[in-house]
Write a structure and sequence with these properties.
The structure holds two protein chains of two kinds.
Chain A: E1 3-8, H1 12-24, E2 29-34, H2 37-47, E3 61-65, H3 73-83, E4 92-97, H4 102-110, E5 114-119, H5 124-135
Parallel strand pairs in A: 1-2, 1-3, 3-4, 4-5
Helix pairs in contact in A: 2-3
Chain B: H1 2-10, H2 14-26, E1 28-33, E2 38-41, H3 43-48, H4 71-82, E3 87-94, E4 100-111, E5 119-126, H5 128-150, E6 154-160, E7 165-168, H6 170-176, H7 180-183, H8 200-212, E8 220-225, E9 231-243, E10 246-255, H9 257-300, H10 304-335, E11 342-343, H11 346-356, E12 367-372, E13 379-380, H12 382-398, E14 410-417, E15 421-428, H13 435-438, H14 460-470, E16 474-480, E17 484-492
Parallel strand pairs in B: 12-14
Antiparallel strand pairs in B: 1-2, 1-5, 3-4, 4-5, 6-7, 6-10, 8-9, 9-10, 11-13, 14-15, 15-17, 16-17
Helix pairs in contact in B: 9-10, 10-14, 11-12, 12-14
Classes of the chains: A alpha/beta, B alpha+beta.
GO biological process, one term (chain A): phosphorelay signal transduction system
Modified residues (4-aspartylphosphate) (chain A): 65
Domain Response regulatory (chain A): 4-135
C-alpha cells in the first residue's frame, strides 16, 4: 500500500529532515510539502471539486507544525474540520512542535481532528509508530 | 382687644396692677404717640440700649428710622396701625458698640381717637441670639455650597425621585460640558452612556437598583456621556435621602479614564509578555530541534557530498538561532534601564549600522541616500536609537527588489532636526507591505504572509515600536505593495 504524506512546516530545513526520515522508512510513499499552511488548505479544499480521486494526491498522514506565521497549526486544524470532505475522513493529522508546551499538547489532544502530538525532531522510530497506527 | 386697650388707662384693680408689674418686668416695650415719639420705655427696653441710655423718652422711635427699615415697610406699618390694626414684624438696629440687634415686634394701638391722642404700644422680643445663630448657619451653608460646587475632581449630580437633575457641581459641569441652565430639569439619563439607555424612568430604577445590589457601598463602574457625545468611565456612589417626604438621589462620580487606560495598558503588556515567553521558549527551541534532526541524518549519511549539504544546513540553522538570540537580547535591552544617555550622533549611528549590515544579500546593489541634519543637542540613548536604525534598515535590505535594468533599489535614510525633537524617515522602493498586514507588523512575533525569509523572527518591528514608545515618540508606516515602504518616527526632546 502506498502512503501519502503531507508535510506542513514553515522551516524548509525541518521539511527536509522530515522528508529524509520518511524516505528511510523504505515504504512506498508519496510526499507533498508546504511551507504555508494556507496553501495546504487551499489544495485540500480543491479536492472536493474533483470528480475522480484517482489522479489526485489525498494525504493519509499530515505532519503539521504548530508555530507558523500567517496560519498556525491550530488554525489549520479548524479550517480542515470545516472541509467535511469524505475523501479526507481517513486522513490522520499529527502535530509537530519543538516545545513540550503543556497547553499546546492539551489543545492538540482536545482537537478531534488531531490524532497525536510529536516532539521534533522527527525520527524513523517515531514515523514507524504512526505508520503502524495507520495500518491497523 | 377692647379689654386690652383699656388696660393701661383704666386699671385700678390690684390684680390688674399685679399683671401689669409682671408684664413690665418680663417684657420689652415702649409707648409712642402718633408722631412716633416715645412717651414711655420700660426698664428692659432701656437695658438693651444701656450703652446708649440717653433721654429715650421724648425722642422719635429710633427703631422705625433705621437704615434697615425700608420706606415701604415704614408706610405699611403706619397705615396698619392708624387703621387700628396690629402690626407685626422684625426690626433691626445697630447698637452704639456696633453689635446688631433684632427685635420681633408687635405694635398695637392702645388709645384710639383723634390724631394727637393716638397711643401705641410696641412690644418687643429680643431675637438677636437666634438671628445670630441663623446667620452662622447660613454662612456655614454657603461655605458648604461653595465647597461642593467648586470641587473639580469629583462629579456630583443631584436628582429628584424621578431622576430629573436639580443640582450639580463644577466638576460635573467640567466633565459633561453642559452649562448649569442647560442641564437643570433634564433627565439624568442624558448623562448616561448609550448602552444603559432604554427608557428614562426604567434606567433610573435600574441604576439605583443595580447600585443597591453592590455590597459595602463600593463604587460601581459606569460609563457616562458628555455633551460632545463621547463616553467616559466613572466610579459611581449613589446616596439617597428624604426631605419632606420627597426622595432625592446624589450621584457622586470620579472620572476613572486614566485608571482604565492604565489598567488596559497593563493587561496588554501582560499579554505581550506571556506571548513573548511562550514564543521565545518555542522559537529558541526550534533551531535546536532542527539541528538535532540534521545531526541524526549526518550520523547515518555515507556520502561525503551529501553530508556537506547537511552541514551547510546545520550552519544556517545555527546562524538563525544566533540572530534570534541577538534580537531577544535587544528586546530585553529596551526594558532594562541601564542605557547610557548622551548627545546622539546620528551620522555615526547610521555609519555603524551600515557596516554591520554589509553582509546581507543585495546590500552591494542598494543605493543608500543619506541625508542627516545632525542636531547637536538631542539627548537620548544611542543604544536604543541604534537598534531603531538597525532594524528598519535591515528590513529595507531584506525586502529590497533585485537590481535590474529597470530597477535601481534604494533606501532613503533621513534625519530632520525639529524644534521639539527629531524626525527619522526611512524609505525604500522594495516589496512593500500588504494592506492587511500594515497594522499588525508591529505586533510581537508577527510575520507577514509575504515574509518567507527564514531569518525573520517577528521581533524587529516589535523592538522598534517598543523603543519608540519608551522614548515617548510616535511611529507611522505607509506602504504600497511592490512599490515602496516608508517609516516615519518622531522622537520628542527630553528635558
Amino acid at each position: 500500500m502506498k502512503i501519502n504524506f503531507m508535510l506542513i512546516d514553515d522551516s524548509e530545513i525541518d521539511l527536509f529532515v522530515n522528508q529524509k526520515n520518511i524516505e528511510k522508512l523504505e515504504i512506498d510513499s508519496c510526499i507533498k510539502s508546504y511551507t504555508r499552511a494556507k496553501m495546504a488548505v487551499e489544495y485540500l479544499g480543491s479536492l472536493e471539486d474533483q470528480l475522480s480521486l484517482e489522479p489526485m494526491f489525498v494525504p493519509d498522514i499530515i505532519l503539521l507544525d504548530i508555530n507558523m506565521p500567517e496560519m498556525n497549526g491550530f488554525e489549520f486544524l479548524n479550517k480542515f474540520s470545516e472541509l467535511a470532505n469524505e475523501k479526507l475522513e481517513r486522513t490522520k493529522i499529527y502535530m509537530l512542535s519543538s516545545t513540550t508546551n503543556l497547553s499546546d499538547m492539551r489543545d492538540a489532544d482536545e482537537h478531534t481532528t488531531c490524532n497525536g502530538f510529536i516532539n521534533k525532531p522527527i525520527t524513523k522510530v517515531k514515523l514507524e509508530k504512526i505508520v503502524n497506527e495507520l495500518m491497523q | 382687644m377692647r379689654a386690652f386697650k383699656n388696660f393701661w388707662s383704666e386699671s385700678t384693680n390690684s390684680v390688674e396692677d399685679g399683671i401689669k408689674n409682671v408684664f413690665k418686668a418680663n417684657s420689652i416695650y415702649t409707648i409712642m404717640d402718633s408722631s412716633g415719639r416715645i412717651e414711655y420705655a420700660n426698664e428692659n427696653f432701656c437695658k438693651i440700649y444701656r450703652s446708649s441710655t440717653g433721654p429715650i423718652v421724648g425722642e422719635p422711635n429710633h427703631l422705625l428710622k433705621t437704615e434697615f427699615f425700608s420706606l415701604e415697610k415704614h408706610n405699611d406699618l403706619w397705615r396698619t396701625i392708624m387703621q387700628g390694626e396690629k402690626w407685626e414684624g422684625v426690626l433691626k438696629d445697630v447698637l452704639s458698640n456696633g453689635s446688631p440687634i433684632w427685635l420681633d415686634t408687635k405694635i398695637l394701638p392702645i388709645k384710639v381717637g383723634a390724631l394727637p391722642d393716638c397711643k401705641f404700644i410696641c412690644i418687643h422680643e429680643d431675637i438677636t441670639k437666634i438671628k445670630l445663630e441663623c446667620e452662622v448657619l447660613k454662612n456655614d451653608e454657603s461655605i458648604y455650597q461653595l465647597i461642593y460646587k467648586s470641587i473639580k475632581i469629583g462629579i456630583v449630580v443631584v436628582t429628584d425621585y424621578k431622576g430629573s437633575i436639580i443640582k450639580w457641581n463644577k466638576g460635573a459641569e467640567n466633565a459633561f460640558g453642559y452649562s448649569e441652565h442647560e442641564i437643570m430639569g433634564k433627565q439624568h439619563s442624558v448623562l448616561m452612556a448609550k448602552k444603559y439607555k432604554k427608557s428614562n424612568i426604567s434606567d433610573f430604577l435600574e441604576l439605583t437598583n443595580r447600585y443597591r445590589t453592590i455590597k459595602n457601598q463600593e463604587g460601581l463602574e459606569f460609563y457616562c456621556l458628555n455633551k460632545e457625545g463621547s463616553e467616559f468611565p466613572v466610579e459611581l456612589v449613589v446616596s439617597k435621602w428624604t426631605i419632606n417626604n420627597e426622595d432625592y438621589y446624589a450621584f457622586k462620580m470620579l472620572d476613572i479614564t486614566k485608571r482604565i487606560a492604565f489598567q488596559n495598558m497593563l493587561k496588554r503588556k501582560t499579554k505581550e509578555l506571556e506571548l513573548f515567553l511562550y514564543r521565545s521558549a518555542h522559537d529558541l527551541n526550534a533551531p535546536f530541534s532542527s539541528a538535532q534532526g540534521l545531526i541524526n541524518l549526518i550520523k547515518e549519511e555515507q556520502s561525503i557530498d551529501k553530508m556537506q549539504i547537511l552541514i551547510n544546513m546545520l550552519e544556517k540553522t545555527i546562524n538563525n538561532a544566533k540572530a534570534l538570540s541577538n534580537s531577544l537580547t535587544s528586546a530585553s535591552l529596551i526594558s532594562s534601564k541601564v542605557h547610557e544617555i548622551t548627545v546622539v550622533d546620528f551620522s555615526q549611528i547610521v555609519d555603524n549600522v551600515l557596516k554591520i549590515l554589509k553582509g546581507y544579500n543585495n546590500f552591494e546593489n542598494l543605493k543608500f541616500n543619506i541625508d542627516i541634519e545632525n542636531p547637536n543637542d538631542f539627548i537620548s540613548s544611542p543604544d536604543l536609537i541604534f537598534a531603531i536604525f538597525q532594524n528598519l534598515i535591515k528590513n529595507g535590505i531584506k525586502f529590497s527588489l533585485p537590481l535590474t535594468k529597470n530597477h535601481q533599489p534604494w533606501i532613503d535614510i533621513k534625519v530632520k532636526s525639529l524644534r521639539d525633537g527629531i524626525l527619522i524617515i526611512i524609505c525604500d522602493n522594495g516589496k512593500g507591505i500588504n494592506k492587511k498586514d500594515l497594522n499588525k507588523i508591529f505586533e510581537l512575533y508577527y510575520r507577514a504572509e509575504a515574509d518567507q525569509n527564514p531569518e525573520s523572527n517577528g521581533l524587529g518591528l516589535y523592538i522598534v515600536k517598543s523603543i519608540v514608545e519608551s522614548l515617548k515618540g510616535e511611529i507611522r508606516v505607509e506602504s504600497k505593495i511592490q512599490n515602496s515602504t516608508c517609516f516615519t518616527i518622531h522622537l520628542p526632546k527630553t528635558n
